[in-house]
Automatic annotation (TrEMBL), chain B:
One Pfam family here: BPD_transp_2
Matching PANTHER family: ABC TRANSPORTER, PERMEASE PROTEIN, GUANOSINE ABC TRANSPORTER PERMEASE PROTEIN NUPP
Locations listed in the record: Cell membrane
Membrane topology designation: Multi-pass membrane protein
Cellular component, GO annotation: plasma membrane
Coiled-coil boundaries: none
Protein keywords: Cell membrane, Membrane, Plasmid, Transmembrane, Transmembrane helix
Protein name: Inner-membrane translocator
Protein's organism: Sinorhizobium medicae (strain WSM419)
Length: 511, 355
């Protein structure tokens, strides 16, 4: 049988780095093929080459036995190749349906398309409201839009670059059902993920990349995840040490009856939220994305201020009215969920991005930037967190997704905060680095810092948190002790209909 | 064969240097065709445009004299442009600066005081900043669009100037011309040589260029502004106030334009009249962009722009070229300059046809 896709000797280099070297692989019709590898192994680069969004320096691509020569995304789409990018490629200022319409060829009828999106997305377990502006969507919601956009086209070859990194477990189950269905109809799927259990569940075959080269092939269903991990990382995985927590006497972060109106008609209103985070403990905030996490974290980080200062206390000080800079002076640090454009300035290089939040640590003297010191600071992050980059001079946007995440987390951890807020700490980070980041979070808290982790990944929360909160429809549950609760209880709280009120778009669509 | 445009993996360093050279060559080519088509000898015209104006000491003096305000204002504007703060009303800020400086020069009780010039400098700076503070306040507090507000304030400044020179400030001994009395000598920069008009105010521009370089390349404030421009959400994340970028950007532009206005009245003009600037405030916007918002580039951009002003006058006077033609030629050069920049970030690639 002629394979759906064949790659022959693909090589691609960027200045100072060979991202893909002599890669060959072939994928049959209906095959679900995983591409595995550490951060910066070259997975996204290879996918962009297949899709035509980047050009290989040498090598050949065959689709259904025919060589693709002049390649670009439009040609891919006409061949039935669709791709979900790791860093989403959506137009911020227009609505979901308009975004999807732009990717569809031929004439379209916006109202019909909107209706189609609504039913299809609900069926796939990824409800989205077609009329919302992308600008207002959380990353989890954006990911749903990207996936639905591709599914709408009934592709022949579907490329998914970490599609589940910010999806809830329920949505992942539904997505897998859909993907299996697609595969049984003959659609080939290339699947990238750092979550090995997903790969084992879904994928028939796997290609492992390291430093841009193919280092192995495997049948994930017949291989243990430990073996897969070893193939990827090439060494033993570190083991987690979670020592018992000794909470400080007084809480470092106190939230007292925090309510805030929604930012716009699609935002979530926060209602009477109260909780504490003590020094020495990690508190997790679980919930389906779009339930008020974005609003709450913006209020806690100071990106949005609150008129009543005593609703948020940091180290006992009323701080609701303080901006992000002032809260950082009180010892706060923060890792946001969007890394490009919020946690880092894409065109700026790494030492400049280190300056973004580390400028208080002696990197600025008499109003002038101490470039040497800033470079050293960036270099320390790169070394300690094993960020794969050319050096402090590489731009943030040239880093692979996971490496930029490591850099941002590393920067905030290096500030040795008294209070650390983290959204999706290990989003897109490979297994080895994820374990390292989790361990560093635990160590930071055991050294006395208060840590609040917002994540959709329950496994992660259960691994590192001492107490768990659940946010649903803008309300936060009373704290649950990790050791006395389980995934079912949390799952139930996550999808609970908020106190008799009709839930907004999310659940209305889900039902 | 087909051609395709694609983004370079990283900006090309060679193109960065080659772009202005290519643009100049293309302009000479296009200009020659244009001049020849209209019956003017291209070589003589180009010579008159670019060489003749600089052939004499007076020409060189005029060249620097005109480049100085352009460079000064462009430096101030670039501070804001780096943070996407669009002050396009430097012309108005220049006029207000000139009015304030001239007011001090005319009405200060002791016309011989050595303090006169420094006071005028302060008045010009302050007035330019006040004029820029209005859009800054409105943008920071009410989120108005600074492009509109700065532009409209330029019209107000122009009319205010017109009112003053036609009315209360008109020189009683001036045969009813709409202009003020001449400033006393102590209120004027003394030219380096009385045969030429170039005066020490060029040193102010030199200082501004150094400050601009320090600001953009070395200062933390400049860094914060560039974060605001490149990623507003990251600026908010880091706790850099948007309002401080707005204030810094607009005030820097206002101060620079106000000083330029002061240097004009205290230099070549010596008095106010309805037309005190040949559009320095607007041309400086182009200078800032040709200079890619950095200090060294702005100096080159200002010198080029000034030469275009002079060359345009020369060809009109010596060869009788229509004014519109000189403007077209100037436009073509700027067009090629900005268009050539495109190839620093993008390249053309040959693509074989489908087999
Ligand atoms: N535009 C670019 N300019 C320079 N270097 C780049 C660029 N894009 C990618 N790279 C480099 O190529 C290498 C491979 O990156 P790629 O994004 O393919 O990694 P990845 O396997 O997808 O990693 P991750 O799991 O973190 O997403 C990295 O070292 C990265 O720094
Ligand atoms: Mg990737």
């Amino acid at each position: 049988m002629i394979p759906r896709l064949e790659l022959h000797n693909i090589t691609k280099s960027y200045p100072g780095i060979v991202a893909n070297e002599d890669i060959s692989l072939s994928i049959q019709r209906g095959e679900v093929h995983a591409v595995l590898g550490e951060n910066g192994a070259g997975k996204s680069t290879l996918m962009k080459i297949i899709y035509g969004a980047a050009q290989a320096d040498s090598g050949e691509i065959y689709c259904d036995g025919k060589r693709i020569e002049a390649h670009n995304p439009a040609i891919s789409r006409s061949l039935g190749i669709e791709m979900v990018y790791q860093h989403f490629a959506l137009f911020e200022s227009v609505s979901v349906v308009e975004n999807i319409a732009l990717a569809i060829k031929g004439v379209f009828d916006l109202d019909r398309l909107a209706a189609e999106i609504k039913t299809l997305s609900a069926r796939y377990g990824m409800p989205i409201d077609p009329h919302r502006r992308v600008h207002d969507l959380s990353v989890g919601e954006r990911q749903r839009v990207e996936i639905v956009r591709c599914l709408l086209q009934s592709p022949k070859l579907l490329i998914l670059d970490e599609p589940t990194s910010v999806l809830t477990p329920q949505a992942v189950v539904k997505l897998f059902e859909t993907l299996r269905q697609l595969a049984s109809e003959g659609c080939s799927i290339v699947y990238i993920s750092h979550k090995l259990d997903e790969v084992q569940e879904l994928c028939d075959t796997a290609t492992v990349l390291r430093n841009g080269r193919v280092t192995g092939v495997a049948r994930p269903k017949e291989t243990t995840s430990l073996e897969l991990a070893r193939m990827m990382v090439g060494s033993q995985l570190p083991e987690m040490h979670v020592s018992p927590s000794v909470p400080s006497e007084k809480p470092v972060l106190e939230v007292r009856g925090l309510s805030a109106p929604a930012r716009d008609e699609y935002g979530t209103e926060l209602t009477n939220i109260s909780f504490d985070v003590h020094g020495g403990e990690i508190v997790g905030l679980a919930g389906v994305s779009g339930n008020g996490q974005a609003e709450l974290i913006a209020l806690l980080s100071g990106e949005r201020t609150h008129s009543r200062s005593e609703t948020i206390l940091i180290g006992g000080r009323p701080s609701g009215h303080l901006g992000a800079g002032e809260r950082r002076k009180l010892g706060m640090a923060f890792v946001p969920e969007e890394r490009l454009g919020r946690g880092a300035v894409p065109p700026h290089c790494l030492w400049e991005n280190a300056l973004l939040t580390a400028h208080r640590t002696g990197l600025v003297r008499k109003g002038l930037v101490e470039r040497g010191q800033a470079r050293d600071f960036a270099r320390r992050i790169i070394d300690r967190f094993k960020v794969k980059a050319n050096g402090p001079q590489s731009s943030a946007q040239s880093l692979s997704g996971g490496n930029l995440q490591k850099f941002i987390v590393g920067r905030e951890l290096t500030l040795e905060p008294k209070l650390l807020l983290v959204s999706q700490p290990t989003w897109g980070v490979d297994v080895g680095a994820a374990a390292f980041i989790r361990q560093t979070l635990v160590d930071l808290s055991r050294a006395g810092a208060a840590v609040l982790v917002v994540s959709e990944e329950l496994d992660e929360l259960f691994e590192i948190c001492d107490r768990l909160l659940v946010i649903s429809n803008g309300r936060v549950s009373p704290p649950l002790i990790r050791k006395q609760t389980n995934r079912e209880e949390i799952g139930l709280l996550m999808t609970r209909v908020g106190h008799g009120e009709a839930r907004r778009s999310e659940v209305a669509l889900e039902n | 064969m087909r051609l395709r445009i694609e983004q370079r993996p990283e900006p090309s360093a060679q193109m960065r240097i080659a772009a202005p050279v290519i643009a100049t060559a293309l302009t000479f080519l296009a200009g020659s065709v244009l001049f020849a088509a209209l019956g003017y000898d291209p070589l003589i015209t180009l010579h008159a445009f670019f060489v003749a104006p600089l052939n004499s000491i007076n020409g060189l003096s005029e060249w620097l004299l005109k480049a100085s305000p352009l460079i000064l204002i462009a430096c101030g504007l670039a501070v804001g442009f780096r943070a996407n703060i669009w002050n396009i009303g430097a012309e108005g800020q220049l006029i207000i600066g000139a009015i304030a400086a001239c007011g001090v020069g005319l009405f200060y009780p002791n016309p011989e005081s050595p303090l006169l010039l420094p006071l005028m400098f302060l008045a010009g700076t302050g007035a330019g900043m006040v004029w820029a503070a209005i859009p800054a306040f409105l943008r920071a507090r009410m989120n108005t669009n600074e492009i509109l507000v700065t532009l409209m304030l330029t019209y107000i400044a122009t009319l205010l100037l017109s009112f003053l020179v036609h009315g209360p400030w008109r020189d009683p001994a001036g045969f009813n011309y709409p202009q003020t009395a001449l400033l006393p000598p102590a209120a004027m920069f003394e030219p380096f040589d009385y045969a030429y008009r170039l005066n020490p105010s060029v040193f102010i521009t030199a200082v501004a260029v150094v400050l601009m370089w320090l600001f953009a390349d070395r200062s933390f404030l400049g860094y914060k502004m560039s974060v605001s421009g490149a990623a507003p959400l990251a600026a908010r994340y880091a706790g850099f106030r948007e309002s401080s970028a707005v204030w810094t950007g607009l005030l820097a532009g206002g101060a620079a334009a106000g000083i330029a206005g002061m240097a004009e009245v205290a230099g070549p003009l010596g008095q106010l009249s309805p037309q005190i600037s040949p559009g320095y405030g607007f041309a400086a916007i182009i200078v800032a962009f040709i200079g890619r918002l950095n200090a060294f580039g702005i100096v080159l951009g200002g010198l080029l722009m000034s030469l275009l002003f002079l060359g345009g006058e020369t060809v009109q006077m010596t060869l009788g070229l229509p004014a519109a033609l000189t403007r077209i030629f100037q436009g073509v050069l700027l067009f090629f300059l900005l268009a050539a920049d495109f190839f620093i970030y993008y390249r053309l690639r040959h693509i074989p046809e489908h087999a």
